[in-house]
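My hope is that you will study the protein record below before we discuss the fold together.
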Amino acid sequence: FIFDKKTNTRIDYPNIKKMFENLYEFGWKPIFEEKNPIALTKNGKSITLEPGNQIELSGAKLNNIHEACAESHEYLFELNQVIEKLDFKIVSSGYDPISKLEDIPNNPKKRYEVMTKDMPFGGKLSLDMMYKTAGTQLNLDYTSEEDFIKKFKLANNLVPISIGLFANSSIVEKSNSGYLSYRSKVWQETSRGGLPEFFLKDVNFEKYADYIMNYPILFLQSEGNYISGKKYLFKNFMNGEIKEIGNKIPSTNDLDTHLGTIFTENRLKQYIELRSMDACGWECLCAGPALFTGLLYGNLEEALDLIMKIILLENVRKIGSIGEIIEVKRGFARNYLIAQKKALFASKENIKEVEKIKSELNKKDQDKKNLAKEIDEKLKNKEYEIKKLSTENKELYGSVKPTEISKILKDLENVDINPSLIQLSKEIKSLGTFEVILNLHSEIQSQIKIKVVAQEENQ
C-alpha cells in the first residue's frame, strides 16, 4: 500500500501516474487503457495497478528462488527511490491497517467499475478484498499432469499452514481485529474466493477444465468496453450463447481473463499460483517463496507423506471400512494403522491386491465381530478390583495402566484384549470406581468398571 506521508492517506490515481513517470527512468515502459497508464512492463516483468491503487509486481520467468528474490529487491530499490522523491511511504501488510473503505480512492481501469458493482453480490467482504488487501503470490511450474496433480494437492492442503505462518494483517482501521490474518478472513468471504473442497483431492487437467467451464464469468469485453458476465457460465461463452457480445466464442485472452478472475486460494493457469500469504516487510519477502519452492520442488514426495493415502484392511472405528481409500496424517498412518496391520499404503499394487482379497477380509472381519459380541456378553458391566498403594489422601503412587487391566481380564476371564483397545475416560490416579471402554470391534464397544482399592504395604 502506498500512503502520502503528509496526510497519512492512500495515494490517488494522479499520484500513481507521477510514480509511473518516475519509474520510466529505470527502464519501465507504460501500458495504456485509452489514454490512462494502468501498468508498466520491463524485461518480461510488469507492475500492475489494483482497484485501490495498490501496485503489484509480476515477476519474469526465472530459474531459481535466488533470481526471484534478487528481482524483487531490485524492484523495491527502484520503488523506494521514487517513494522518497515524492514523499510517499510504503505499508507492507496483508490488509490496510488504517483506511476506511469509503476513503480509498479508485482509478480509471475499466474492469474495476464492473467488479465493484457485481462482486459484493457473491461475498460481503468482496470490496475489502479489492481495495484493502495485499498478498505475496508465488507462481510455480510443473513438468507433467501427474506432477501438477501432486503439487496442486499439496499446495491446497497446506493453505491453513501458509496462512498461519505468514499472517501479517491483524490491525483493521487502527484497532486489533482479533485475527492474525484479517486478509484471510476477507478472502474467505469474497465472491469467487475461498478453497473449494475438491481442490484437496486429486485434481487433474480435465477436472480443473470442467470446473472453470462451469464457473460464472465476472465480466465480458466488447469493443473496448466491459460488461457484466454474471448471468453466464464460461461454457455459455464457449458455445457462442451470449447475445450481448454477438455470440462470439472466446479467444485465449478471454480464457486468461477468466482464469485470472477466479480468486481461490490457489489456482491454475499455465503454472500454479499460490495465493494464501499476506504481504510482509522486505526482510521476509522471500521466506514464503523459499518455503514452498523447497517443499514442492525439492521435497515433493516427502511432503506428500503428510497427507498420504492408505487403503484399509479392516473396519476401523471413526476412520473407515475395509477397502476404503482414505487420507490421514503421516504419523497416524505409519505408527498405528500400518504398524497394526490395519492398512497399507494406497499404491496401485496394494489397491489391486486388496480388491482381490476383499471378500476374505470381510469374512475375517465378521469372525472378529462375532467374537467381539461373545466377549461383550461375557464382560459388559462387570466390575474388577485392582489393589494399589496409595496415600492418606487416596492418591495412587503412579496410575492404573491399560496393560494392568488387560492382564486382569486375561487372568480372570481368559480373554485377550490388546491394551491399545482399552480406553480410559481419564487417567486413573486415585482410589475409587472408574468406567472403562473396551473397543472390541469397529462396531462394538463394551463397558466394564475398575474398582481401585488400597493395598496394604505388606501385601
User: Anything to note?
Assistant: The chain has a mean pLDDT of 93. The first helix runs from residue 13 to 23. The chain has 15 helices and 25 strands. The longest strand covers residues 444-454.
